[in-house]
Predict the 3D structure of the following.
Amino acid sequence: MVDALLLLLTFALGAMLSRVSLCAVAGVQQAMVARNFSGLQRLALAASSAGVVLLLFAGLAPASVLLPGAVPFHAGVITGGLLLGMGAMVNGGCYLGSVLYLGSGNLNFLFTLAGIGAGARVAEALALFPAGTGTGPHAAMGPLWMAGAIGFALLIIVLIWRARPPGVWLALCAGLLAGLVYARHPGWSYGTVIDSLAHGRHALMDWTANLSALLLFAGALAGAWLAGSFRLQRPAWRRALRCAAGGLVMGFGAALVPGGNDTLLLWAIPGLTVYGALAYFLMLATIAAGFALQARLTPKAR
């Protein structure tokens, strides 16, 4: 049975992602190069608003809304976080950034999606680390969900009061929609659909998963079109190869964690998981190290 509400929510989320940059690469670049932290603040706002929504729904309706399960610590979490950062640097955008750029008409990022699927297959074939499996989604228990929701709400208030970055309300709305998506369908992401397609797990897929992934990108395209930011850019072979390589590395890393940075930012971190925060921090640190190295190797202008 097709979940019409989930389809509507993913379309709206895609449209919102086309209006506000939640790209980790762009956010870190702003902070490193221009000392502008608005991009990172938007990421924190989106994660916090997703956390408030997800935790409130999970706490008030524990039988219906589930939270992400814990993932036992293993080397794949660390390696996967590092690879997500490396792949995002090569690709020129993370999982969420790829939605933004592809929705804006840059067809090179179609090769990113193909690379993500290939990376998932390579990770399974090599099996270098223990499988990134956890306890599975669980119902909210004890006072932790309430403390988490209050903490995220306080962080939102502080960021709006002290920083008020551009796009603050769009970031909040994107996080709110993401919280509703994951409340409706725990653990969903377009990366999981690509992963299932890459592994040929058609029996585990349904029309809702397929259509929701398509509607995420359709929403991004519609949002960019309405905002006047859609510019069709045909693939160039060098850029396309770079996107494919970056997607492959990101897909490999996501299989190890498990989860791409979209799932980490809008599902695992809002769900108060340690592995999500650790993997996402390592991804940001890797991207920052990449820009720092780039700055040292680039000759300064006279």
Summary: The chain has one domain: 4-297. The longest helix spans residues 274-297. The two ends are 64 Å apart (CA to CA).
